[in-house]
């Protein structure tokens, strides 16, 4: 391993550790897009110190999922997320889903409701010492969200 590559890997690990400390929905890059949806509500409790994000149609709590993937698994995840839902479901039935790793070249940020009827995902790629989005956030509801949540949860 070259010195430059090991330095980049060390910086990548430091960045990953700092970003993974608090998986809070407000810390996601897609937070504004999620909060702009009229079917997402923020409930405040204990004088506004505690907040709960709720998917309004079902009243289900929305939680954050942050995962990283090796290059091969991330590229596969990118292909799977680009597929039509019917094809994705068939693919997941026949093959294993991409496996996350502790530190990876790809990062997935997602919001998933507890009942899996809502899902928002955004994929990032690590280069130039930062994670850069590979497109905007994508939103899924109903059966589509269930299929996507099987892929990432």
Q: Which ranges are low-confidence, i.e. pLDDT below 50, for 5 or more consecutive residues?
A: 1-8, 14-22
Distance between the termini: 33 Å
From the helix content, strand content and strand pairing, which structural class follows?
A: alpha+beta
Q: How many helical elements?
A: 5
Estimate nothing, just give the exact number of structural domains.
Answer: 1
| Morphology call | globular
H/E series, N to C?
HHEEEHHEEEEH
Structural Rg:
16 Å
Largest sheet at a glance? 7 strands, antiparallel
Strands, count: 7
Oligomeric state of the chains present here:
single chain
Mean pLDDT: 85
**What share of residues are in beta strands?**
25-35%
Helix content: 25-40%
Describe what you observe in this structure.
The protein is of the alpha+beta class. The chain has one domain (3-152). 35% of the residues lie in helices and 31% in strands. The protein has five helices and seven strands; from the N terminus they run H-H-E-E-E-H-H-E-E-E-E-H. The protein has helices at 3-19, 31-35, 71-82, 85-94, 143-152; strands at 40-45, 50-55, 60-69, 106-113, 118-127, 130-133, 138-141. Strands 1, 2, 3, 4, 5, 6 and 7 form a seven-stranded antiparallel beta sheet that branches. A hairpin with a 4-residue loop joins strand 4 and strand 5. Helix 4 (85-94) packs parallel to helix 5. The longest helix has 17 residues, at 3-19. The chain is globular and about 45 Å long. Mean pLDDT is 85; it is low at 1-8 and 14-22.
């Amino acid at each position: 391993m070259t010195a430059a590559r090991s330095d980049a890997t060390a910086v990548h690990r430091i960045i990953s550790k700092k970003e993974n400390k608090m998986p809070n929905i407000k810390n996601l890059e897609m937070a504004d897009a999620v909060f702009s949806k009229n079917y997402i509500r923020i409930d405040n409790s204990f004088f506004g110190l505690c907040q709960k994000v709720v998917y309004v149609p079902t009243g289900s709590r929305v939680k954050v999922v942050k995962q990283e993937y090796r290059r091969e698994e991330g590229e596969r995840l990118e292909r799977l997320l680009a597929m039509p839902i019917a094809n994705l479901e068939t693919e997941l039935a026949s093959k294993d889903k991409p496996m996350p790793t502790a530190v990876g070249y790809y990062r997935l940020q997602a919001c998933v409701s507890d009942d899996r009827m809502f899902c928002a995902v955004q994929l990032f790629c690590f280069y130039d010492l930062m994670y850069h989005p590979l497109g905007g956030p994508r939103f899924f509801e109903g059966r589509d969200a269930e299929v996507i949540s099987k892929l990432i949860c």
